[in-house]
Amino acid sequence: MPTPLKAGEVLRNRYRIKSVIGQGGMGSVYLADDLRLEGRLCALKEVEHDRTLPAELLKQAREQFQREATILARLDHPNLPKVSDFFSVGGRDYLVMDFVPGKDLRTLMLEAHRRGEFLPEREVLGWASQLADALTYLHNQQPPILHRDIKPSNLKLTPNGVLKLVDFGLVKILTSDDVTITILQGRGTALYTPLEQYGGDTGHTDARSDIYSFGATLYHLLTNHKPVEARELFLHPERLIPPRELNPDISQRTERAILWAMSLHPEDRPSDVETFRKALLGDWNPITRPRAPLPSPSLIDLVSSPTELALIWLTASLVLVSLILTLLR
Hints:
- By secondary structure, this protein is an alpha+beta fold.
- The chain folds into 2 domains: about 10-100, Phosphorylase Kinase, domain 1 (2-Layer Sandwich); about 105-300, Transferase(Phosphotransferase), domain 1.
- It has helices spanning about 55-75, 105-115, 120-140, 205-225, 230-235, 245, 250-260, 275-280, 300-305, 305-329; strands spanning about 10, 15-25, 25-35, 40-50, 85-90, 90-100, 105, 145, 155, 165, 170-175, 180.
- Strands 1-2-3-4-6-5 form a 6-stranded antiparallel sheet, covered by helices on one side. Strands 7-9-10 form a 3-stranded antiparallel sheet. It has a 3-stranded antiparallel sheet with strand order 8-11-12.
- Strand 5 (about 85-90) and strand 6 (about 90-100) form a beta hairpin.
């Protein structure tokens, strides 16, 4: 891992490093003062490319960073931090984003767990609606943009209740010929990563890959229980405990939507984020109708419950027996 910059260092005569706020295999994330705009804090994401790469490949990697940073800088959405600048210093590239204050959802989940509580379903679904807004925006870009690292620690809640999807470290831009370009090589965080993403840039990923991570994130937030890694589920699907067995207060509708999103095969998942949102929330809008009742279970939810299934089979059996007796008379 590259040696982190020290507090007080100034990059590009503009960004003064305050502290390290995150670290990864290819660099650190820093909190910095913007010396040009007094009082503005920003986050600097550092990328140091593999120095063992041949010169030509290293050149291509850095050109790739420039292309993707240019695309990210065009994004403008309330649930995404704004990318305001990018530059290179020595062998390192930097992406400058708004610093997002507040706690991440992993921290909020752990705090609830220490109190012996679960995060309220209504609250989590409200956050899910905001995340769906951000992902729909990214996936509808031309070319589409995949985040590929959705997880509780990459979701920050600002003091005024706005959810921000942070860390574009593994963002993937789909070109028209399906060739993919990635700022950082990586596979995301294993607990939330779908099977197809384990191939790095050689695996075929699309919007449904982000939907898997979305579902796995909701699973963790609502159950205080880490989701089983996709590779393990492939071999032992029975190890995925249904959410309602861990937290009985979760609605049937929420459980069904989460398990649908976490299907191992992309073809078995919702085709897009809006389809997943509909399965999860129905017509409930947490922004315009925050006090409205949570979405009621659908017919599928009701008949998929073991109790209701047993009653249906019992009723059907009684009707069949009654019909047979009637015919025999």
